[in-house]
Prior knowledge:
Layout: E1 4-9, H1 13-21, E2 26-34, H2 43-48, E3 54-61, H3 68-76, E4 86-87, E5 90-91, E6 98-101, H4 104-119, E7 130-133, E8 137-139, H5 147-150, H6 152-159, H7 163-170
Parallel strand pairs: 6-7
Antiparallel strand pairs: 1-3, 1-6, 2-3, 2-8, 4-5
Helix pairs in contact: 3-4
Amino acid sequence: MASETAIFAGGCFWCMVQPFDTYPGIKKVESGYTGGHVVNPTYEQVKAGGTGHTEAVRITFDPSVVSYADLVEIYWQQTDPTDAFGQFQDRGDNYRPVIFVKDEEQRAIAQASKDALANSGRFTDPIVTTIEDAKPFYVAENYHQDFYKKDPERMKLEKAGGRKQFIEDNWKK
């Protein structure tokens, strides 16, 4: 059975795992750091800034069950694609929204999806999520993996920081 990978950054990686993890065809969702210039960064380094990295998730999936295009659509619905300076209560470059693409096929799919969203009229502000070449992905410390399962109460607080309401207001229509 073949596997593909997708990497998305959409604010706190804790909030980005569950929507993908619970979808058919997903083999693994890992929290980590990517897009920067520091090798093997720690959570504290990324959180402090200056590494160039953003919190992201790397999704391993079975393309015969779920397509990359499907994953991009799920991604949009977890984020505010009009906010380039973070996501919800998480502010700063390390929380910027990015679709990291591994090849020209992923780039074309992501760009077509972004263009369709921009032309849909769903948002009045411009779609500012960037599409960037994938860089090395560094898996985050173990306590960050599957955080939504480990600490459901903390996850409720994270989602209460504006993400849940934004999703309901803008994506559940």
